[in-house]
């Protein structure tokens, strides 16, 4: 287990170093999420007070759409020089590839969120009154679930030629319970309603995270096997 | 009453649709078999 | 080898046709008309039956996916695929009849009723599964990938149901009673008999379609193999 | 000792390998040649653990290679058609990454040594995106050698290399072989086959049609003629 973790960190570090050099994916993701916010502010008038109600939903729409960009890249980029095969023949457990990719994607998406959510609040002139710790906890829990299942399906979709199109089709139906939980919990925290309701949503999301993490962790080796 | 009629029409239409798809597959199969037989007779 | 399977097919057919007529008789003539909703309530028999088969078909897909991970065979691959196709047909029927039911009972085409929404998401998962099967590549690879996706999808369905039910009760606490299946307060015994009979009939229909679909799919496989052999022979 | 016992591999409806058997002793160097589609690359992928055989077993030092035997894979160095390298990273970073995955000790030292050996140490801090095909191939070779495998599987290592690099590669292979490392080589370049290898297998349509040691005295032409005869099945 320790070895799997160490290998995973090696792979994640490699991905992040790659990203740090090119800044392609993260740059695109940030620009894209800003553009989505811009389009939304045209679509829903930010000066209108009722628009505040859709802020929790917007947070997750932005996360998912910009996250999809990064997820698509994470395995496609391994196809250059066929380096994924290099990882497959290396003496490592296939699960560590999965774990490493999850860590790398999580870092990437979290960075994008740290920029895009403040931008969203700023442009919609939204004053944050909720409990910051709970808010961050909810965002992190839901993002972990999104990245776990997203990374897994990105690895699956990378086998297809039209993987950029395939990934959302596979991912979004599976994400639906998580997103219901994420949006509801975010809404409760932002509107300062009872925190106990948010906790029950948080529990649901945590259960989802654990369940899918376990399933993906064990099924990943089947994705890595050649035919 | 109209809704009832609508619902059952849709049910039968969709079931018929799937059976039609199956039938089309069978037809395609027949064509393929014919091609194969033609090849065989040419040999 | 061939004899028993033909026998099963014939038996299914012999059972299915009368069962279908009997269930239609039960639905339209024998069973009582519900007082509040009138005749439209009769949608419910086939709606529930098809919904049941939609979930059953998905369970079958999941079952064959697990088997396929253990050892991929063409037989299991085909069975999972046909079951998913029939599942798409039945989820679509369930959704449309559900919508018509909603229109007649609550005067709205769509309600965020947990069962109905679960069926909708089930439909999307089915379609995504069929997309995975349509990928290019060798048969073994697709078998493995689709099996993995099928299993993940299977795990997802109960969670979807739970999440939506939870969401629903929190948003607008219990507007439509316990939901449509229980029809508020208990089903009349006559209605229950009709419902159970319909469920049986539709399950038979599912089995019959499965067998036919599998048979055709296997024939296609055989023909395709024969064709590639002939092509190879002609080329060399 | 790398042993393949009665391997059969079926992909789709096609039988790629039929009843393929081979034993590779330490210090041996064997070339696998044959026409396109004979199953050479598939055989390598099986040996590298990228695929599982449909039937038969692969033994490495007496232990069977299966899904869960990652540590056995450490003994095998696989050089494929592609370089498996990351083009945004520098040569040294690439080596460092793979070295970590293979748990190589003193990566830095060994990495530099190998870069020198393949003649890339001047470029050690340049992302390999700008490298030519030959330079990448050299780095790929360094990557394989870094992990100090007992068995080298080289899938057409000479493609894209100029004359100088070819002789450098042959020298490196010879060196490793003298240390007792077994070498398997797929190549279409018979000249290199004769130079590097002692034994040659001819694969055709998934079967071994010839298996003999190379007579270095006889030169290229007789070898070619022999190959033609073996493949056409006379």
UniProtKB/TrEMBL annotation, chain B:
Question: For this UniProt entry, which segments traverse the membrane?
Answer: 6-23
Q: Which UniProt keywords apply?
A: Membrane, Transmembrane, Transmembrane helix
InterPro entries in UniProt:
Put_ccm (IPR030888)
Superkingdom of origin organism: Bacteria
What protein name is recorded for this chain?
Answer: CcmD family protein
Q: Which organism is it from?
A: Cytobacillus praedii
UniProtKB/TrEMBL annotation, chain C:
Question: Where in or outside the cell is it found?
Answer: Membrane
Work out whether the entry's keyword set contains Transmembrane helix: yes
Q: Cellular component terms, GO, for this chain's entry?
A: plasma membrane
Membrane topology, record value: Multi-pass membrane protein
From the UniProt record, which GO molecular function terms apply? heme binding; heme transmembrane transporter activity
Q: What is its main location?
A: membrane
4Fe-4S recorded as keyword: no
Q: Which residues form the Cytochrome c assembly protein domain?
A: 14-172
Which residue spans traverse the membrane?
Answer: 12-31, 43-69, 81-102, 114-132, 144-167, 191-210
The record's listing under Pfam families reads:
Cytochrom_C_asm
Q: What does the entry give for GO biological process?
A: cytochrome complex assembly
Keyword terms, alphabetized: Cytochrome c-type biogenesis, Membrane, Transmembrane, Transmembrane helix
Q: Please give the InterPro entries that the UniProt record associates with this protein.
A: Cyt_c_assembly, Cyt_c_biogenesis_CcmC, Cyt_c_biogenesis_CcsA/CcmC
Q: Which family does it belong to?
A: Belongs to the CcmC/CycZ/HelC family.
Record PANTHER family: CYTOCHROME B_B6 PROTEIN-RELATED, HEME EXPORTER PROTEIN C
The protein's name in its UniProt record? Heme exporter protein C
| Organism of this sequence | Cytobacillus praedii
Q: What is the lineage of its organism?
A: Bacteria, Bacillati, Bacillota, Bacilli, Bacillales
UniProtKB/TrEMBL annotation, chain D:
One of the record's GO molecular function terms: transmembrane transporter activity
Q: Which SUPFAM superfamilies match?
A: P-loop containing nucleoside triphosphate hydrolases (SSF52540)
Q: Which UniProt keywords apply?
A: ATP-binding, Cytochrome c-type biogenesis, Nucleotide-binding, Transport
Annotated coiled-coil positions are: none
Domain of life assignment: Bacteria
Q: Output one GO BP term.
A: cytochrome complex assembly
The ABC transporter domain covers which part of the protein? 2-230
* Gene3D superfamilies (alphabetical): P-loop containing nucleotide triphosphate hydrolases
Query: Known InterPro entries for this protein?
Result: AAA+_ATPase, ABC_transporter-like_ATP-bd, ABC_Transporter_VariousFunc, ABC_transptr_haem_export_CcmA, P-loop_NTPase
| NCBIfam families membership | ccmA
Q: What is this protein called?
A: Heme ABC exporter ATP-binding protein CcmA
- Please state the gene responsible for encoding this protein: ccmA
